[in-house]
C-alpha cells in the first residue's frame, strides 16, 4: 500500500495539466481504479484483517483526493498568473482618446435658424406630427380638390371600419403649428415652427420625411416690406455674407394672398455655390401675406389684424450652406458621413460668436 501511495502522489505532483490529473483520478479512484479494486477486496477478508485494512484504504483514498484537489488549485493559480502576465497593462501610459459624437447638420442648422429669428423676436412653437385633416388642410384654406390632399402626395393614417372621425395625416408642413399658435396666443404674435414633415416623395433632393421651418408674424400694420426685411436679415446672417439680394416672384399658395416665391442671387462658377454674387438666381423659400380665412381659422379677426408667413426646408438650407450634395445621406446613419459633416457638441451657434464655427 505504501508503494501504491507513493506512485500516485508522485504522479499527481508531476501532472502538467487538468487532463493529466483526470486520467490519474480515474486510474486510482475510478470504478476499475487500483485503489477501488483494493477496496472491493475488503469483503473477502476476515473481520480482523478488514478492521486493519479498511481505515488504511479510506485514508489513502482521502489523501489521493486531497492531493488531486491541491494540484488542481496549483495549476489554476499558475494559469491565472500566466494570463495576468500576458495581459499586463502599464496604466501609466497615456490613454487613447475616446471617440466623440458630432451634432447632425439638421440639428445644427435648426439651432442656427432659431438663434437668428430669436434675435428678431420670434419664439419657437411646436405641434403634433400626426394632424387632423382640418388643421393640416382646411384651416389653411386648402380646398378638397387640391393635389396635396390626394393619397399619392400625403400619408393618411388608416382607420378601422366604421370609424367616422375626421381623417388624420402625417403633417405635410409645419403650417398647422401656426394655426395652433394663433388659437393659443392670439395676436400680436411672432413665432417660427421648425419640425419634421412627411410627403410621398423620394429622390436626390426629396425624402419621405424631411424638416421644415415656417415663420408667422401678425400685428396691425405688418406689410410685405416687413417680410422682405426679415428674410433679407435672415439670409445675411445664415449664409454669413454682407451683401444679399432677394427676388420676389408672384406665386400662389392657398394660405397666403398675395404670395411670392423668393430667389437669392448666387453664382455656380467652378461648380462652387457662392451666395450674394453672380448672375444666377436660386429659389430658397415661399412666403406671402396670411390669407384672411387662415386668420379666421386661427381665431383672429382679419379686419383688425394682418401678417406675413414664410416656409423653407431646413435640409435644403443645410445642403446649400455646407455643400452636401445628396439629401438622402442625411438619413443613412453613416458614421463616416456624420464625422465629416457633423459639428462639435460644444460649438453652440450664436449671432455674436458665429453660427458655423
TrEMBL record:
Name of the gene encoding the protein in the UniProt record: pheS
Assembly and interaction partners: Tetramer of two alpha and two beta subunits.
GO annotation, biological process: phenylalanyl-tRNA aminoacylation
Class of the enzyme per the UniProt entry, highest EC level: ligase
Catalysis: reaction(s): tRNA(Phe) + L-phenylalanine + ATP = L-phenylalanyl-tRNA(Phe) + AMP + diphosphate + H(+)
Cited Gene3D superfamilies: Bira Bifunctional Protein, Domain 2
Family statement: Belongs to the class-II aminoacyl-tRNA synthetase family. Phe-tRNA synthetase alpha subunit type 1 subfamily.
UniProtKB keywords: Aminoacyl-tRNA synthetase, ATP-binding, Cytoplasm, Ligase, Magnesium, Metal-binding, Nucleotide-binding, Protein biosynthesis
Cofactor note: Binds 2 magnesium ions per tetramer.
Cofactor: Mg(2+)
EC number, UniProt record: 6.1.1.20
Binding site for Mg(2+): 257
Protein name, as recorded: Phenylalanine--tRNA ligase alpha subunit
Molecular functions per Gene Ontology: ATP binding; magnesium ion binding; phenylalanine-tRNA ligase activity; tRNA binding
Signal peptide from the UniProt entry: none
SUPFAM superfamilies: Class II aaRS and biotin synthetases (SSF55681), tRNA-binding arm (SSF46589)
Location relative to the cell: Cytoplasm
GO CC entries: cytoplasm
Highest taxon of the lineage: Bacteria
Domain annotation Aminoacyl-transfer RNA synthetases class-II family profile: ranges: 107-349
Amino acid at each position: 500500500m505504501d508503494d501504491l501511495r507513493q506512485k500516485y502522489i508522485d504522479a499527481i505532483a508531476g501532472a502538467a495539466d487538468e487532463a493529466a490529473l483526470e486520467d490519474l483520478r480515474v486510474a486510482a479512484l475510478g470504478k476499475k481504479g487500483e485503489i477501488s479494486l483494493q477496496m472491493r477486496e475488503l469483503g473477502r477478508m476476515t473481520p480482523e484483517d478488514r478492521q486493519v485494512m479498511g481505515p488504511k484504504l479510506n485514508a489513502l483514498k482521502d489523501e489521493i483526493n486531497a492531493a488531486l484537489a491541491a494540484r488542481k488549485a496549483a495549476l489554476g493559480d499558475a494559469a491565472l498568473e500566466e494570463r495576468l502576465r500576458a495581459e499586463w497593462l502599464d496604466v501609466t501610459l497615456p490613454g487613447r482618446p475616446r471617440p466623440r459624437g458630432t451634432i447632425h447638420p439638421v440639428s445644427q442648422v435648426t439651432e442656427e435658424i432659431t438663434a437668428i429669428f430669436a434675435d428678431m423676436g420670434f419664439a419657437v412653437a411646436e405641434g403634433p406630427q400626426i394632424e387632423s385633416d382640418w388643421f393640416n388642410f382646411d384651416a389653411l384654406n386648402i380646398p378638397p380638390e387640391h393635389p396635396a390632399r390626394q393619397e399619392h402626395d400625403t400619408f393618411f393614417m388608416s382607420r378601422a371600419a366604421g370609424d367616422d372621425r375626421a381623417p388624420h395625416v402625417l403633417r405635410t408642413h409645419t403650417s398647422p403649428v401656426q394655426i395652433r399658435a394663433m388659437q393659443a396666443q392670439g395676436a400680436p404674435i411672432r413665432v417660427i415652427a421648425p419640425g419634421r414633415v412627411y410627403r410621398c416623395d423620394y429622390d436626390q433632393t426629396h425624402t419621405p420625411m424631411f424638416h421644415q421651418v415656417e415663420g408667422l408674424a401678425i400685428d396691425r400694420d405688418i406689410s410685405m416690406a416687413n417680410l422682405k426685411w426679415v428674410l433679407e436679415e435672415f439670409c445675411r446672417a445664415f449664409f454669413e455674407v454682407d451683401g444679399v439680394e432677394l427676388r420676389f416672384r408672384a406665386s400662389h399658395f392657398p394660405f397666403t394672398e398675395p404670395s411670392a416665391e423668393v430667389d437669392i442671387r448666387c453664382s455656380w462658377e467652378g461648380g462652387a455655390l457662392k451666395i450674394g454674387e453672380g448672375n444666377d438666381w436660386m429659389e430658397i423659400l415661399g412666403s406671402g401675406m396670411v390669407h384672411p380665412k387662415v386668420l379666421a381659422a386661427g381665431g383672429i379677426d382679419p379686419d383688425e389684424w394682418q401678417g406675413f408667413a414664410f416656409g423653407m426646408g431646413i435640409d435644403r438650407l443645410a445642403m446649400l450652406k455646407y455643400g452636401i450634395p445628396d439629401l438622402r445621406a442625411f438619413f443613412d446613419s453613416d458614421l463616416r458621413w456624420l464625422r465629416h459633416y457633423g459639428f462639435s457638441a460644444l460649438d453652440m451657434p450664436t449671432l455674436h460668436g458665429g453660427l458655423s464655427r
